[in-house]
Amino acid sequence: MRGLRNKSVIVTGAGSGIGRAIAIRLVEEGMTVGVLDINVDAATQTVETCKGLAGRTMVLECDITNYDEVVAKVDLFEQRVGGIHVLVNNAGWDQPIPFLETGPAFWDRVVSINLMGALNMHHVVLPRMVAQDGGKVVNIASDAARVGSTGEAVYSACKGGLVSFTKAVAREVARNGIRLNVVCPGPTETPLFQSFLGEGNYGARLYDGLKRAIPLRRLGRPEDIPGIVAFLASDDADYITGQVISVSGGLTMHG
Ligand SMILES: NC(=O)c1ccc[n+]([C@@H]2O[C@H](COP(=O)([O-])OP(=O)(O)OC[C@H]3O[C@@H](n4cnc5c(N)ncnc54)[C@H](O)[C@@H]3O)[C@@H](O)[C@H]2O)c1
Q: Coil, helix or strand for 206?
């Protein structure tokens, strides 16, 4: 991919699943990757996996819901690396519960991780991109943002919010040479998705049903996502901003 080598990127939630796969791919491309996660052991594991690849890594232990912590860790990364060219907002969390069985404490948790966390990251990183006259942001939302997802109402609201937020900010900072785009994974086999399926027959039936409903006849794998992220972060995507792309085996098809 053109224009990634020797550039720097922070990937949130890079200790597991899709975020780890994105981090590995961007290190393969020769980037310096800030492997940011609330779970430092998981982030360290990602860094171990990247040993011997073209680029470099740095563990950033950080809870994206804590604004001050985000400032401290972004400062640290910038001091060590000398700038931030790309931000990938990937960290997310949910538990499948019908909306009417949830309450404000649960909504707070879902909103603070999936929406407020991403706002914190944008608010801290974008001024640095403005100062250097350019940058790329790739936000990992979900097809839940586009078509809804049973048992994930508040999560869907957050991901839909992230899509709209991305488009609005993409308009605001286009003049500063900053591009923001969204990738929407469909059901993808990660620890988060396993917890969604749960144990037993119900999960197994849901899994088979999804597989049959997906035109490409399989669920997503974490490795299905990094290609589009690398493209959107690269020079080849310089004329693309405010766009939303699903990676879901054709489960959802949007005009
Ligand atoms: N797996 C799917 O089916 C699927 C589908 C659509 C969208 N997504 C989205 O893709 C992204 C990655 O999901 P995944 O399935 O790889 O999940 P995952 O649970 O495997 O990984 C998420 C990572 O985020 C980290 N994290 C959680 N809260 C954090 C916080 N407050 N601060 C910093 N790090 C935090 C976790 O420690 C974990 O390492 C999420 O945004 C998710 O909503 C996943």
A: helix
How many angstroms separate the alpha carbon of residue 192 from the centre of ligand 1? 6
What letter represents residue 245's amino acid? Answer: I
pLDDT band at 195; cut points 50, 70, 90: confident
Q: Is the CB of 249 under 6 A from ligand 1?
A: no
Tens digits of per-residue pLDDT, 85-130? 999 999 999 999 999 999 999 999 999 999 999 999 999 999 999 9
Mean pLDDT, residues 29-55: 98
Å from CA of 167 to ligand 1 middle: 22
Domain 8-190+222-247 sits in CATH 3.90.1150.10: no
Catalytic residue, chosen from 67, 155, 207, 239, is 155
Cβ of 106 closer than 6 Å to ligand 1, yes or no, is no
Structural contact between residues 230 and 236, judged by C-beta atoms closer than 8 angstroms: no
Return the ligand 1 atom nearest residue 117 CA. Answer: 31
- Residue 207 annotated among the catalytic residues of the structure: no
Residue whose CA is at the smallest distance from ligand 1 atom 40: 92
Closest CA to 88 of 255, 254, 230, 201: 230
Residue 139, both tokens: 């936000």
Range of weakest confidence among 16-20, 134-138, 208-212: 208-212
Q: How far is the CA of 93 from the centre of ligand 1 (A)?
A: 5
**Contact, 248 vs 217, CB < 8 A?**
no
Secondary element (H or E) of residue 166: helix 153-173
Where is 226: in which H helix or E strand?
helix 226-233
Residue with the two structure tokens 């308009």: 171
